[in-house]
Request: fold
Amino acid sequence: MRADVAAGSEVYVRLDGGEQVLKEGDMFIADARGVLSSILYGPDYRTRIRPETQQVLFTVYAPPGIEAGAVRHHLETIRD
Reply:
C-alpha cells in the first residue's frame, strides 16, 4: 500500500459506480491493483465494505500542520 499525490491521470471507480479521474495534487492511497481512496473523491467501489467483509482498514489523511493528537483522537472516535 502507498500514499501519494495525484498527477491527474489516476483513475478509479467511486462507491457510486462512476469512474473518477483524480485531480492533480489530490492525496490518495493505492494498492497494487489501483486507487483505494482519495481526499477529494472518497473511497473506491472495489474495496467497499460488504456483508462478507471480515477485516477493515480506516484511513485518515493528515497533511502537515495537523497535530498527531488530533489524528489519534479522530481514530479513537472511529474505533469507539
About this structure: The two ends are 25 Å apart (CA to CA).
